[in-house]
Amino acid sequence: MKQSGFEFEGKDLLITGGAGFIGVNLIRSLLPIKGVLRVLDNLSAGKAQDLDNLPAELIVADIRDRQAVDEAMAGAKIVIHLAAHTGVADSVADPHMDMSINVQGTLNLLEAAVSHKIERFIFASTGGAIVGDVDPPVHEEMSPHPVSPYGASKLAGEGYCSAFWGSYGLKTISLRFSNVYGPYSYHKGSVVAKFFRQIQAGEQLSIYGDGEQTRDFLFVKDLCQAIAAAIQVEIPYGQPIQLGTGRETSVNKLVDLMRQTVGRENFPPVTYLPTRPGEVQRNFVAISRARKYLNFSPQTKLIDGLKQTCEWFQKIP
Ligand SMILES: NC(=O)c1ccc[n+]([C@@H]2O[C@H](COP(=O)([O-])OP(=O)(O)OC[C@H]3O[C@@H](n4cnc5c(N)ncnc54)[C@H](O)[C@@H]3O)[C@@H](O)[C@H]2O)c1
User: Fold this and answer.
1) pTM of the model
2) Does the beta carbon of 126 sit less than 6 angstroms from any atom of ligand 1?
3) Quick one: CATH architecture of 2-180+219-247+286-298?
4) Which of 132, 133, 261, 315 is the most buried (most CB within 10 A)?
5) Does ligand 1 have an atom closer than 6 angstroms to the CB of 97?
């Protein structure tokens, strides 16, 4: 890992979508930090109270609003762009809405980043949704075949990040997250968050398909270490880096581990529903580029990450 020697404090950072699941965990993982960082979030999914007691100034605005983006970016050096429309099924129902946030919003931020002379622009991308239904492990050299509008919009975002490095010298890094889980995910539609919500409510769990579809579940604290490293190291810009654990876990196996975490006596019944369109069957990722450039080495075992997530869910009212 080549250190750039780049040191930062709160005022250098703008985190879009910083009131969301990953944003709140990221801010916590950067503590202690000198000064106050800025968050730009329209609170369509994130919650202002999750930023309580954190050194973060919240600007409630939409990333498609150029004036608000300019105001939020003034004085910053690093942009971590997490704000997005994140629902795969919703993107199938309304691809235009998904495109306007994930593509136009990202382009808006990139243009602003050039005019504000931003030193580094980190883009939250995705692996499986971009490459589509392929034989895993998913890696950065695979040609993209998104099967959902969400995947297509993230691919477009990566394309603009590459183009802004190529055309304007903006130092962009696209980090492709696998399936991230952990605390502060209450509002998420992802399988771990949804199942913990249903368990809490005593509702039966619904699995789409036969449950043998696989994912690469990455604990959010491990992800945040990689994002923090991406702020500071020298890496090839304009190119994607895949993040995950490299391990493949079926949804049925995940449910078994959640049952161990919660206890059999408190575990609701499980039903199986038809497969949803736009979902990939198998996904786990290769992380050699992340190891090489970010010294990435995710340490959290799935069962331990699930325990920490479960404890967080149990604490919320
Ligand atoms: N969670 C995962 O497993 C996962 C996997 C791959 C990629 N990602 C990407 O990581 C990023 C963060 O995801 P997350 O899981 O924290 O989702 P999240 O929904 O919790 O966070 C996204 C945040 O963006 C905000 N937002 C949405 N639209 C906005 C807009 N138009 N203007 C301003 N703010 C807006 C929301 O209010 C929310 O706080 C997203 O870009 C997502 O696509 C997440």
Assistant:
1) 0.96
2) yes
3) 3-Layer(aba) Sandwich (3.40)
4) 261
5) no
